[in-house]
Write a structure and sequence with these properties.
The chain is an alpha/beta fold and 168 residues long. It has 7 helices and 6 strands, in the order ββαβαβααβαβαα. Helices cover 50% and strands 20% of the residues. The longest helix is centred in the middle third of the chain and has 20 residues.
Length: 168
């Protein structure tokens, strides 16, 4: 049956386990202990565990406490907002990525990223992977998969280069 506290679990050929906790129980008594045991079992079987979370300090600290190797920061709010709200969400993502890296977590990010909003996320130095496949496949319908990938890669590379340039 379904493990308590786990809404989605999938393995990538036995090497990676992605876990999405049910929001209504993530603060329940014993949740962190339960998840630590679950993560230890997966890790013991050679799985690299990744948690899909909000850029919230409590969730990041809990991810480190249970022994996850990777977190994926949810960028959906950032992707759906504009102006000051988007700037605030970007600051949350930057702070979250910084905290996660300090706690020894590998940082990924994704959800809702497109050509017009990916650059600021790609510029976050701690983010080592962006999950953008859904957008790329959709865009491929219009411009082809090769062109969609090349454009996204160009935007990501330019953003990363600008963020690491002297004086940036």
């Amino acid at each position: 049956g379904e493990q308590p506290g786990v809404a989605l679990f999938r393995t990538g050929r036995g090497q990676t386990a992605d876990i999405l906790a049910k929001a209504e129980i993530e603060h329940a008594v014993g949740f962190v202990d339960h998840m630590r045991t679950f993560v230890e079992r997966l890790s013991g079987r050679g799985c690299r565990v990744s948690l899909f979370i909000e850029p919230d300090p409590e969730q990041i600290e809990a991810s480190a406490a249970i022994g996850a190797a990777v977190i994926e920061l949810h960028t959906g709010r950032y992707a759906l907002t504009e102006g000051m709200s988007r700037d605030e969400e970007l600051e949350r993502l930057i702070a979250g990525a910084t905290l996660a890296a300090k706690r020894g977590l590998e940082v990924h990010a994704g959800h809702g990223l497109r050509f017009d909003n990916v650059a600021p996320i790609a510029a976050i130095p701690e983010v080592v992977e962006l999950n953008i496949g859904h957008f790329l496949v959709g865009e491929a319908v219009f411009i082809g998969l090769d062109a969609a990938i090349r454009e996204m890669r160009r935007l990501m590379d330019e953003a990363r280069a600008a963020s690491t340039a002297p004086g940036a």
